[in-house]
Amino acid sequence: MEKLLTNYYETASIILFGVGFVTLLLHSNLIKKIIGMNIMDTAIFLFFISKGYIYGKEAPIIRGVHKGIQGYINPVPTALMLTGIVVAVSITAFALALTIKLYEKYGTVELDEIMRIRGE
């Protein structure tokens, strides 16, 4: 139990991922599925950024005196997460555009209703 409280960022990211995954699986509304996917993305970003941070070290921006390689954190995880955020926003925009097209064609965003209409 103590490790859960010590690693609260990781614990929160796992809980967020679970909430997003359950939302993605249990709801038939496409907007809710997109929201669940975004919650999962956010959980992954939180997890990797919390793993990339080292307490007591600084961002690799040299101001004045250089502290050596041991004085700074690795910037690669943060850069990868910035790239991931851009990809996640792009996928969200694409999914919302597809949802709009589905709504225009079928008049609903409920996946069960769309499958019922297509089955007729």
Automatic annotation (TrEMBL):
Keywords: Membrane, Transmembrane, Transmembrane helix
One Gene Ontology cellular component: membrane
Superkingdom field: Bacteria
Bilayer-crossing regions: 6-26, 38-56, 76-98
Membrane topology: Multi-pass membrane protein
Cellular localization per UniProt: Membrane
Entries under Pfam families matching the protein: Oxidored_q2
Family the UniProt entry places it in: Belongs to the CPA3 antiporters (TC 2.A.63) subunit C family.
Protein name: Multisubunit sodium/proton antiporter, MrpC subunit
Lineage: Bacteria, Bacillati, Bacillota, Clostridia, Peptostreptococcales
